[in-house]
Amino acid sequence: MNLHFQDLIPKDFNDNSRVWIYQCNRLFTLSEVLQIEELLEDFTKSWQSHGAKVKGYANLFFGQFIILMADETATGVGGCSIDSSVRLIKNIEQDYNVNLFERQMLAFVIKERIQLLPMEQLNYAIENGFINTDTLYFNNTVQTKKELLSNWIIPVKQSWLAKRFSFAAN
Prior knowledge:
The protein contains 5 helices and 9 strands. With 170 residues, it is α+β, with helices and mostly antiparallel strands. The protein is globular and about 55 Å long.
């Protein structure tokens, strides 16, 4: 599975640009992807904060993760502009009958595919060898462009999961 997404992230955005990641509970279909990409593009073209244009970026990665980014070096992103982005995501949820706010669902790369696992099943997956410290994990807690580029898709051993769950030695 090709996990190289870094080339799609705008190079002209500051490393401290704010990032929001919304993980879908399922893969979007091809027709849904095309529609959502258009929605995201339209949103970033018109994204404003207190009447000023936000330097924004949005994309759908791996058919399952919506990433929004705002470069605040030009225009700060405040409550109303963040609210407008959340409205966009909630509209996508409603229109496509998906969940984009479920934070208890974790995403891993298992057998060359993105697999979702409810957090309450993580111990079972660890105990049965489905997930180990080298399993790639989508760390959706990243908050900046710099973190996105270096810490979004990481081995479990480099994530918060390694501290919270006990893993047998690999």
